[in-house]
Amino acid sequence: MGTILKTIDLTKKYDKHVVVDNLNLEIEEGEIFGLLGPNGAGKSTTMNMICGIVRPTLGDVEFMGKDFNKNRKNLLGELGYIPQELAIHGNLKAWENVELFTSLYGIKGSELKERIDESLEYVGLLEKRNEYAKTFSGGMKRRLNIACAIGHHPKLMIFDEPTVGIDPQSRNFILDKIKESNKNGATVIYTSHYMEEVEAICTRIAIMDNGRVIATGTSEELKKMITDDPATITLEEVFLTLTGKKLRDY
Amino acid sequence: MIIYLIKNNIKLMMRSATNVLLFIVTPIVLIAMLSSAFSDMMAKYESGGKIIAGFRVEKDTPEAWRAALDAFAAGLEEESLLLREYVNGEPKEILRDEDLCAFVVFGADAYTIYQSEDHKNEGKIVEYAVGSFYEHAAAAAANVNLTENAGELAIEYPEYMEPIDSKDYYGIIEIVYFGCCAIVCGAGLFAGEKKNRINKKFYVSGISEPKLYLAKFISMIIVVSVGSLIATALSGLMFGTKWGNPVLSALIVFLVISAATAFGLMAYYITDNMVATIISVFTVVWLAGFFGGSFETYMFSTTPKALKLISPLYHTNRALVELSCMGKSDYVGSAILYSVAIIVASSAVAVLAGTLRKRGRA
Q: What's the predicted TM-score (pTM) here?
């Protein structure tokens, strides 16, 4: 297993404000990599730079050994992006939403039909395929959001807070599916404010603050930075110790 | 594959009640209202009582014009519009004393028309007739030497005076006008894409800006065309609206819808704001319609001809109305050219604006 994604001195400035500051990350193939940080830490900007939505002020992103910006067109097909927003059309049926987004990757005809059913089945919505997305509950919409981003079988899946505002059952289902995708070979980058989620599924975690990575490691390694007895401390306590308790009003 | 994008865009737009209301129901209501409001004026134009106007030919007018005017007057008489010559007297006094609707002083290259306050509608009919005559005469005059009194002005008359019923006129014009509001059709779709950050997913998929534009452009044209077709069929059934050459008329309507779609998309791509887009597009379309005969019939409108000619809707409306009542029109070419030019220019600007915006965001 090699490195699938690498950020090299990745920096983003808006005027004089540095949002991401010389970020160097290496994500190994087959990992579930958690990215944690308080509001305004630079997580979303980092995600956006990795996806090519935001161009870095400085630095590069290497994806599958290639410069992402130079090979963007060829590499985007290997990337699945599940945004925090419910990027679906309420007036389209479940299968139509999946068709719309999967077809953007050049998949068509009978293969597209297979991928639609496969994606819907994957998120447990196959029986609801002919229902309008606007009639779905929050949890179902979140699952549909995921189905819309996995139909093209990406190698790297980026989940940006995919469990916001849903019930524990749906959350549990989504986390199980992320683990399942990972077992099937997908590498995952995962951001969330729910520490227990990150602790439960991520093989490695990076904590960001003020645009920089301040700690990286497994959950155990991060805990050991604070105390010799990891069993006595939670990931949330580690997070608060490293980033401080001051409110982040961004 | 933009075919799937087009297909789903169409579904989204077709499932909007606002679109059904705007492109099918509203034109029908407006056709009924406007055709009823203007039916009196147009009935007089069509076959009502005799309209009597006075005229005088200026002394230095070439003989060829005199002959053409006589032929013109004879043609008008068949259409119940009587032109009576007055050699002497003050035009305004004659107008008042003889209770005429208008008095025209003809010159070789210009005319002056005095209209009665008491017979405004009839006066406008005379103005339209004289205006049309001069338009045709000027074209014919280019081929003869008027100073030599050749007397061979090949003026086509009175075809341009063919009557048109108000239900035909507004039945045609309002379908075109609402077709020009095509951008509203995509408003819900664009708002949804923006609100749900779907554009972000388009960007991550790597789909190119021209493809995205094309998917929106084609789907909007299809939806607005289908809406217009249904409204046309309904107005035909309900009011008996008659269109001229169906293929040519359909082509002109299709092109004007395409032009309006491209223009609306361009406004949206530039402003990135649906409210600003709708305000700007509606202002332009309203002005084009005001000068182009979408509210007041272009025949009776007092708008200067130069302003009318600037309006793409004038060319489209006139081409379609003349196709309906005469079976042919000199404005078909300009209507098509105007639409094609708008499609090409607006599409190019829209794609450029979209690409620049994307780069700026990145």
A: 0.77
